[in-house]
Amino acid sequence: VFRVGEALEYGIIGINTGIISTEVAPFGGVKASGLGREGSKYGIEDYLEIKYMCIGL
């Protein structure tokens, strides 16, 4: 089930459930659709840059 869910290129996937949309679920386009994610904590990730910092103490 997890392998299939990861392989599907869709913004939202429901497996063994009929109601998949909630107020905390991210939604939006995938690939080159020009739309990013909205809602949930994943919407802010479009505006963030990840930085790795290694500090020797």
Automatic annotation (TrEMBL):
Highest taxon of source: Bacteria
**A GO CC annotation given for this chain:** cytosol
Recorded hits in InterPro entries, A to Z, give: Ald_DH/histidinol_DH, Ald_DH_C, Aldehyde_DH_dom, Aldehyde_DH_Superfamily
**Which keywords, in A-to-Z order, does the entry hold?**
Oxidoreductase
The record places domain Aldehyde dehydrogenase at 2-52
Tell me a Gene Ontology molecular-function term this record carries. Answer: succinate-semialdehyde dehydrogenase (NAD+) activity
The Gene Ontology biological process annotation of the record reads: gamma-aminobutyric acid catabolic process
Q: Spell out the family assignment given in the record's similarity comment.
A: Belongs to the aldehyde dehydrogenase family.
This chain belongs to the protein called Succinate-semialdehyde dehydrogenase
What species is given as this protein's source? Answer: Klebsiella variicola
